[in-house]
Design goal:
binds adenosine monophosphate; 5 strands; 4 helices; 123 residues; five-stranded antiparallel sheet; HIT family, subunit A; 28% helix
Length: 123
């Protein structure tokens, strides 16, 4: 697994060097709207700690950080009115996962019927 790059765009958001459209924050977690939304609701949830991917987060984060992260996902889904009709969460990891930003993040997508999980089989 690659080392954490402190110059990735989400690290800059966490340091307040670039703005975000914040939807949730607590001691361990920040969530903000995706800049290129793929659904009526498209929120990114990130830990404040420096983790490259979900594997890195699972291996190195404390139980308190992990609980705070998933509590935040539940709270955001509830607050955004997604719990009733449902929503999708995605986390891309590494090259095959198509991860663009190397700071662990969970996409929350909702607000419409999202359709099949994958539209095509990768070559
Ligand atoms: P991934 O491909 O899973 O790494 O997703 C990265 C996501 O970050 C994409 O959906 C981008 O649209 C989003 N993104 C990139 N830069 C920003 C930014 N400055 N603010 C909000 N979302 C961003």
């Amino acid at each position: 697994m690659s080392d954490y790059d402190p110059n990735n765009i989400f690290a800059k958001i966490l340091r307040g060097e670039i703005p975000c459209n914040k939807v949730y924050e607590d001691d361990f977690v920040l969530a903000f709207n995706d800049i290129h939304p793929q659904a009526p609701v498209h929120i990114l949830v990130i830990p404040k700690g420096s983790y490259v991917s979900i594997s890195d987060f699972g291996a190195k984060a404390s139980a308190e950080e992990i609980k705070a992260f998933f509590d935040a996902v539940s709270k955001i889904a509830e607050e955004k009115g997604l719990s009733g009709d449902g929503f999708r969460t995605i986390t891309n990891a590494g090259l095959n996962g198509g991860q663009e930003v190397p700071h662990f993040h969970l996409h929350i997508l909702g607000g419409c019927r999202l359709g099949p999980m994958l539209t095509k089989m990768a070559a």
